[in-house]
Specification:
- It is a single chain.
- The protein is mainly β and 216 residues long.
- Helices cover 6% and strands 27% of the residues.
- The protein is built from 1 helix and 11 strands.
- It has a 5-stranded mixed sheet, with no helix packed on it. A 4-stranded mixed sheet has the order 4-1-11-10, with no helix packed on it. Strands 5-6 form a two-stranded antiparallel ribbon.
- The chain is globular.
């Protein structure tokens, strides 16, 4: 895709109304903070700040994933939240083969950081991650060996005022969600929408400001 088209597209997405980024706000009686999820064994710190995680020859279905980070009232945006984002490739492989493998940050793939804007919004242009089977002997996950994980994105969000949140974002309708030990309990899933240039998805993430908080 032409660089100028990419630039215009990002400018449009980053200046679009909040409604283009998030699902409708939850009613007050259903407002809940977002539950945490496992960090997983393949996290690595030090990812670069970036919007685009895919280049022209990257294999996989393109997706623009947008999100809005909200206060515990489920309606007020959180500006300046730090987003740490990572996922596997289209075939279900991470950029490291084992949890103890060390690679330099410049060799990271599908890892990026960002900050929310004044409307609490963030955006990543990447690919839809593949599913993968939990390998035998993976420390801490031995009981789940052989189970297929649904497609998912990892997200950690930090902010000076709110509790840090590590969670995962899933795709609605994935046939492996129902049997996944973590995804089946998650409410953080988006509907994948297809377009001429790829897919889009949008999520709202609500932070807590006290331990154990579930509602505002």
């Amino acid at each position: 895709m032409n660089h100028n088209i990419n630039t215009r597209r990002r400018r449009f997405l980053l200046t679009a109304p909040a409604a283009a980024f998030a699902a409708p706000a939850l009613a007050a009686d259903t407002c809940r903070v977002t539950d945490g999820d496992i960090l997983g064994p393949f996290y690595r710190p030090g990812a670069r700040s970036a919007v685009s995680l895919a280049v022209a020859d990257t294999e996989g279905e393109r997706i623009v994933l947008t999100g809005t980070v909200l206060r515990p009232d489920c309606k007020t945006p959180v500006a300046g939240a730090s987003i740490d984002f990572w996922h596997c490739d289209h075939s279900g492989a991470y950029d490291i083969k084992t949890p103890d493998e060390k690679i330099a940050p410049e060799n990271y793939r599908f890892r990026a950081t960002a900050q929310t804007d004044k409307q609490g919004r963030f955006l990543f242009e990447t690919i839809v991650p593949g599913r993968y089977g939990i390998p035998l002997g993976l420390e801490g996950f031995e009981a789940f060996a052989g189970q297929t994980r649904p497609a998912h994105f990892h997200v950690t969000i930090t902010h000076p005022i709110y509790l840090p949140l590590t969670t995962q974002v899933y795709i609605q309708g994935d046939p492996f969600t129902a049997k996944d030990p973590w995804a089946r309990h998650s409410k953080l899933a988006f509907s994948l929408k297809w377009g001429a240039s790829g897919s889009t998805g949008s999520v709202e993430i609500v932070l807590a400001n006290r331990p154990g908080q579930r509602r505002a």
